């Protein structure tokens, strides 16, 4: 510009000396505060502000003084915030209802006992009949009926008998597990250490134990009262915490966080001093194996009729009291504890409930649709109520022989015939590709969250998948209209296993291993896809509805 044009009109205000004065000058120009000028107070457009600014301060060669880039950036940021807020709200509205249903399920299930109790609640609401293993089932099972029974209150089997079922017909099954890695109270848990009341715990399963530090922990499980009453209990309040050591006292901690599971993984319950001040509220229980204050809190949760001295034995685990939520900027993830394996327990159970509600499907079904949810998978399944027991076999035999039908005579080989006509889906969570550790996955097998259920393969029989069982599932997926993914572990990496090979080997069942992809497996808090939950339910529902017919079209032996 020329020197002449540098001069302002005599009536104009002097040009600001620096950009730092733009806030105050724009404020006087627009009659606004410093907050107003960035759009927090008044709803002015950029053009309106530009017009006011030109009028107040004059022009140079008919050009307005340029607005500072910081001001323009602030306006762009505000606009983007409005846009992103709207985008997030739209995304949240599209979250599958099935994913929200899972939040309710997992929040109600801090222990395997609670998971089974929640499953029972849903089965009861759907009109299923509760059975007891210690009773005779003769005359109780009929075609079209729906039933369930539990073992140890931590495992459950539920099934729907097809209207066209006859002894010797097969079973369409989904199996998952109710347990997850956690910290469990030791039989004698009361510790006192350096002025603190501590709670002794033992590790259950292969958890990422470092994720349990600095968490707000509650307690849940079951107790035996007066030697005869079995009661579930849950303390939602954050009564326990495992503190980390300050970095000032461990300068090398960021080079590798190491700890001793026996010495350092001990939760703090209370201070000794405060506990003594509150002694009247939590009187000492002579000979107690656990702190009196903990027993008093358990008794309070159990109800007014339960005294702390009446609590004989406990099976309690710790859990993160932070509820499960829908997460991610676009609400595409579930951030929750125990995704492994309550996601698959929930989807399998939900699919069975869907099948039971489909009168036409049940009326045309020649098989039995069954869901089995086992405890103790995380520690090998070898228990009276784990997959490596006769729990499922017992159920299959009793159903095969116990359903009252019009069939004349029963084959002595009805059970063996049924097993060869049956199909089992072993459902356990799978490893999604980790964005920061992509090298841990085989190049051509990189499952993604929200891209479908994963079929797991392993040549060494760590998974039970075969070509025929894959083909059966693909046919069901096609009918359901859902995608599938593939996973195989790298040759230089170890491979975990599931209940699939166990059940396949014990019963001679055609079995496939599948699971929804997730991140942070075995952390105290994990991540899974919302869409995958819905699609797993659709897939398993299709297995129950179509598997018996698909099986007739693919005969290997």
UniProtKB/TrEMBL annotation:
Reactions that this protein is recorded to catalyse: Release of an N-terminal aspartate or glutamate from a peptide, with a preference for aspartate
Keyword terms, alphabetized: Aminopeptidase, Hydrolase, Metal-binding, Metalloprotease, Protease, Zinc
InterPro entries for the chain: Peptidase_M18, Peptidase_M18_dom2
CDD domains the UniProt entry points to: M18_DAP (cd05658)
Cofactor(s) for this UniProt protein: Zn(2+)
Metal-binding as UniProt keyword: yes
A GO CC term assigned to this protein in UniProt: cytoplasm
PROSITE patterns, per database record: PROKAR_LIPOPROTEIN
NCBIfam families linked to this entry: PRK02813.1 (NF002759)
PANTHER family: ASPARTYL AMINOPEPTIDASE
Family (UniProt): Belongs to the peptidase M18 family.
Name of the featured protein: aspartyl aminopeptidase
UniProt organism field: Catenaria anguillulae PL171
Lineage: Eukaryota, Fungi, Fungi incertae sedis, Blastocladiomycota, Blastocladiomycetes
């Amino acid at each position: 510009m020329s020197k002449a044009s540098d001069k302002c009109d005599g009536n104009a205000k002097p040009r600001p000396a620096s950009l730092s004065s733009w806030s105050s000058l724009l404020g006087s120009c627009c009659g606004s505060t410093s907050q107003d000028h960035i759009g927090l107070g008044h709803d002015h457009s950029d053009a309106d502000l530009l017009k006011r600014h030109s009028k107040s301060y004059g022009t140079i060669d008919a050009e307005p003084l340029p607005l500072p880039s910081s001001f323009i950036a602030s306006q762009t940021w505000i606009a983007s915030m409005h846009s992103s807020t709207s985008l997030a709200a739209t995304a949240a509205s599209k979250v599958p209802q099935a994913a929200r249903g899972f939040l309710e399920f997992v929040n109600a299930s801090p222990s395997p006992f609670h998971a089974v109790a929640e499953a029972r609640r849903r089965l009861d609401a759907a009109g299923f009949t509760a059975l007891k293993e210690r009773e005779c089932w003769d005359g109780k099972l009929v075609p079209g009926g729906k039933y369930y029974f539990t073992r140890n209150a931590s495992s459950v089997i539920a099934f729907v008998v097809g209207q066209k079922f006859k002894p010797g017909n097969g079973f369409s099954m989904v199996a998952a597990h109710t347990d997850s890695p956690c910290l469990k109270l030791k039989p004698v848990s009361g510790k006192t250490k350096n002025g603190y009341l501590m709670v002794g715990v033992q590790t259950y399963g292969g958890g990422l134990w470092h994720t349990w530090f600095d968490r707000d922990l509650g307690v849940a499980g079951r107790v035996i009262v007066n030697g005869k009453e079995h009661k579930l209990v849950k303390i939602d309040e954050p009564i326990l915490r495992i503190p980390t050591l300050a970095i000032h006292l461990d300068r090398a901690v960021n080079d590798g966080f190491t700890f001793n599971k026996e010495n350092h993984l001990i939760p703090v319950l209370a201070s000794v001093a405060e506990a003594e001040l509150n002694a009247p509220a939590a009187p000492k229980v002579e000979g107690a194996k656990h702190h009196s204050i903990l027993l008093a809190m358990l008794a309070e949760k159990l109800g007014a009729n339960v005294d702390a001295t009446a609590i004989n034995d406990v099976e309690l685990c710790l859990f993160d009291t932070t509820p499960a939520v829908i997460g991610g900027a676009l609400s595409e993830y579930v951030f929750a504890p125990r995704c492994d394996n309550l996601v698959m327990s929930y989807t399998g159970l939900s699919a069975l409930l869907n099948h039971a509600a489909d009168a036409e499907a049940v009326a045309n079904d020649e098989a039995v649709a069954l869901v089995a949810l086992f405890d103790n998978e995380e520690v090998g399944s070898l228990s009276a109520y784990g997959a490596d027991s006769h729990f499922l076999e017992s159920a299959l035999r009793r159903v095969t022989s116990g359903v009252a039908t019009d069939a004349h005579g029963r084959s002595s080989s009805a059970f063996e015939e049924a097993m060869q006509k049956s199909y089992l889906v072993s459902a356990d969570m799978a490893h999604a590709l980790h964005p920061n550790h992509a090298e841990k996955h085989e190049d051509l097998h990189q499952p993604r969250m929200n891209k479908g259920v994963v079929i797991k393969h392993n040549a060494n029989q760590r998974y039970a998948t075969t070509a025929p069982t894959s083909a059966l599932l693909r046919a069901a997926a096609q009918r359901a209209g859902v995608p599938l993914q593939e996973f195989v572990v790298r040759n230089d990496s170890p491979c975990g296993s599931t209940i699939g090979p166990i059940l396949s080997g014990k019963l001679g069942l055609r079995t496939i291993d599948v699971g929804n992809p997730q991140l942070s497996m075995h952390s105290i808090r994990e991540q899974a896809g919302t869409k995958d939950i819905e699609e797993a339910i659709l897939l398993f529902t299709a297995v129950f509805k179509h598997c018996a017919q698909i099986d007739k079209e693919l005969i290997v032996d």
